[in-house]
Amino acid sequence: MKNRVIKGSGKSLFKSSRFKLSVTLLVVLLIAVLAFFTLHGQKSSSNNQKTILLGSSPGPYSELFLKGIKPILEKEGYHVTNKSFNNLLNADVALSEGQVDLSVDQHTAYMKNFNTEKKANLVALTPIPTVPTGIYPAQKITLKNVAFGDRIAIPNDPANTARAYNLLVKAGWITLKKGTDLIKATKKDIATNKYNLKITEMDSATIPRSKQDFEYVVLPGSVAYSAKISTKKILLAETLRSEYRLVAVTTKKNAKTAWAKAVKKAYQSTEFKNYVKQHNNDNYWVLPNN
């Protein structure tokens, strides 16, 4: 009698275990199927996205996008909106977190530095028109008046700091050590300082209102634009390296979406190039080669 009970209990336990295993496998399968369709749906939704949210920061590049690119995209059925940030760093953080779709206010060197520092995955879609960095007058109005001990202000963010040192080399005021990575040049890389210039690295946005404290200042094009300083006043413009050409930027996951391709196409269109030519007074914009 006891043996029969034990035998029956074993069969019942075996059947129960098989049932639980089957249920578990079914649940896992359902989760996998749901995950697949969810991800597929998200990808499809992103690719079919018809609203593009620009994360803008002060300067001419977002303005050029809104005036020259937005109308082209709207003809293609896209709705373009804008969210303003007080600086490029905040705009890039928002972009990397998916709060906005696009930025048009940075060059490749800045983007790569941001990716390194923030462990982000921003990528360039296409080169866009660029305003070069230049040496501008402050207390002195010509380069030939440079003298021993003159003070010069340059941007303090790594990408534009290196850009400024390259410009001082072009002016013949300093030289850099042999083997210096020109995209990462710092004050420590200076080999000779012909006039013993007193170089101050500072927030580029504050340089225009500090001109009274310097003989010369180095300003990125966007900063000069925001401060309403005409590019006609540039004493020496940089030789624009590819790393310093402005680019339209998005996240890696959005780089191949239909809307991202539409942005790239718009920047490379004849319509946009004609728009820039019509609004390029004093050769303000340096156009990409594409």
Automatic annotation (TrEMBL):
GO cellular component: membrane
Gene3D superfamilies given in the database record: Periplasmic binding protein-like II (3.40.190.10)
A matching Pfam family: Lipoprotein_9
Name of the featured protein: Metal ABC transporter substrate-binding protein
Alphabetized SUPFAM superfamilies for the sequence: Periplasmic binding protein-like II
Annotated source species: Liquorilactobacillus satsumensis DSM 16230 = JCM 12392
Family listed: Belongs to the NlpA lipoprotein family.
Top-level taxon in the UniProt lineage: Bacteria
Record keywords, A-Z: Lipoprotein, Membrane, Palmitate, Signal
Principal location class: membrane
Membrane topology of the entry: Lipid-anchor
